[in-house]
Each structure stands twice: as C-alpha cells, then as structure tokens.
## 1
Amino acid sequence: MDYIMFCDHCGMPKPIVEHIMREYFWIAHQVYCSNCEKPNQIPKYLQELALEMHKQHYGKNE
C-alpha cells in the first residue's frame, strides 16, 4: 500500500511508495518536499509503522 504526506510548508501532497516507507522511513527523520524543497519531519507514528513493515519484510532479528 502506498502512503501520502502533505508538506508542512506549502501543503503539496507527496506520495510515499511502500518500498521507500519500508526501507527508509524507520531510520529517517525528515523528507524533503518535491515542490518547495523544504524538510518535513516524519511523524513518529509513521516511523513506527515503517519499522514494523521493515521487521515483517526482513524478519524480527535485524
């Protein structure tokens, strides 16, 4: 499933594909807007969801 974030600065939606969510969001702290190029904090609940996705995909021991 894909996700979407909205820029905190300009409001532009940013689609987040499942692969990016699973591989990077659990360790990243921010994502840059494709429109205004400003950083946006990744909410804690998305980081936790991404970590769970990562564990399910690769196993719990990583």
Note: The beta strands are 3-6, 13-16, 30-32, 39-41.
## 2
Amino acid sequence: MAENKGKSAVTLYDRTVKYLSQIEYIDEMIGEKQDIIDSLRSSITGTSASTESERVQTSPKDRLGETCAKIVDLCEQLNKDIDSFVDMKAEVIQTIDQYVDDLKERRLLYLRYLKFIPIESCAKELHVSRRTAYNLHKAGIHKISNKFKDLHKIT
C-alpha cells in the first residue's frame, strides 16, 4: 500500500511540474511561429523583387498571394497562442499564490516557471545553495500538487 502511495505522489509531482512548464512550451511555440512569419515576410520581399519575364512575373504574384494568406493564417494562430499564454500565465500565478505560502518557495517557482530560469540560476538569484533551491522547489511543487489531488477526487 505504501509503495502505491509513493507512486501516486510521484505522479502528482510530475503532473504539477508538467502543468507549470506549459507556459514555457507555449512561449517557445510563439517564438517559433514568429520566426516562421518573419521568414515568410522576408521571402515576399525577395520574391517581389524578381522581374525577369512575363511568365516569371505571373508566378511570383501567385506565390505572393499564397504567402500572404499563410502569413495571415499564422498571425491569427499566433494571436490565439498569445491569448493562451497570457491566460495560462495568469492561472499559474494564481495557483502559485493560492497554494504556496512560503515567500522563498513562491519566488523560486516564479523565477523557474514564469521567467524560465534554471533552478541553479534561481539559487544564485535567491542567494541560497543549489540544494536549498531544489528543496524549496520540491516543497513548493508538493504544495501545488494538492490542486491536482483535489481535482482527482472530483473526476
């Protein structure tokens, strides 16, 4: 029974870390989509400068229209991703504030999951040892894990 309980705690811990880490993944997706949009915009500039013959001029115009449509679609997706990012970030802030009373634990979780700073760098920022930073992280995650424990009871 104790073995099963330990396994359950690890699962809750992992789910909590995954939940908090979503912001960083969304942020990375936003950056990647922005890079694609920038690349497509650059290709339009390069494509529109080409004027060799009548046949060549018609083809770039078609590609230009297709590329513009792709840019518009990607910009719409990017705006949705940004909305998700803002909503998720607000939710994570609320979750950390609600479940983590200790200010050092809270600050470490803010640095790690809202600013995407590695725990080792968080330790320097907080002027604590790496071991203390990992302990603060673990304690904060366990407190937030209560959220998932409560949700698990509902479903």
Note: Confidence is low (pLDDT under 50) at residues 47-51.
